[in-house]
Amino acid sequence: MTQPPHDEPTAAGPDELREQVEKTRQELGQTVEALAAKADVKARAQEKAAEAKEQAAAKAGELKDQAALKAGELKAKAAEAAARVQDKLPDPVKDKAVQAAEQARAKAAQAGQLIQERTPEPVRAQAVQGTRIARDNRNLVLAAAGAGVVLWILCRRKG
């Protein structure tokens, strides 16, 4: 059998032949490493996942910045609209609204004072304690209230 001709010239001596063999080994080793890297599916998948994660984080940052910008714009527009509405309200309506608010505050304060004066001290202490417990367990109270509303709705549908 004859071998096909090589692109490289044949070695003139044993030293040159050894150099060619060493060079070929190095090239072959690099080729094997490249093939092994391509065949390592797990590593390639991890690289792709890391790239996707970085891209998602960058996109999320961009979207967050855009949302903050839009929120600021909407807030400014809302404030502007509220100012326009207030400017268009006639003065008598504004005055009546202010008076009504003041009266409501005064009545609420008066009612609170009256309740405080007429409530016995042990009941007030228990109310303060109950308020503190409710404040400390806000999520539990909200969940119980939600369950109560659901039960009430279900009972109304059946009856």
The total strand number stands at: 0
Shape: elongated
Q: Please give the oligomerization state of what you see.
A: single chain
Mean pLDDT: 84
Helix content: over 70%
As a percent range, the share of strand residues is under 5%
What's the main sheet like?
A: none
Number of helices: 5
From the N-terminal CA to the C-terminal CA, the straight-line distance is 100 Å
Uncertain residue segments = none
Rg from Cα? 40 Å
Element string (H = helix, E = strand): HHHHH
- The secondary-structure class comes to mainly alpha
Please tell me about this protein's structure.
This protein is an all-alpha fold and 159 residues long. Helices cover 87% and strands 0% of the residues. The chain contains 5 helices and no strands. It is elongated, with a radius of gyration of 40 Å. The model has no long low-confidence stretch (mean pLDDT 84).
Salient structural properties:
159 residues; mainly alpha; 5 helices; 0% strand
Topology, element by element:
Blueprint: H1 14-39, H2 41-88, H3 91-118, H4 121-136, H5 138-158
Short description:
This protein is mainly α and 159 residues long.
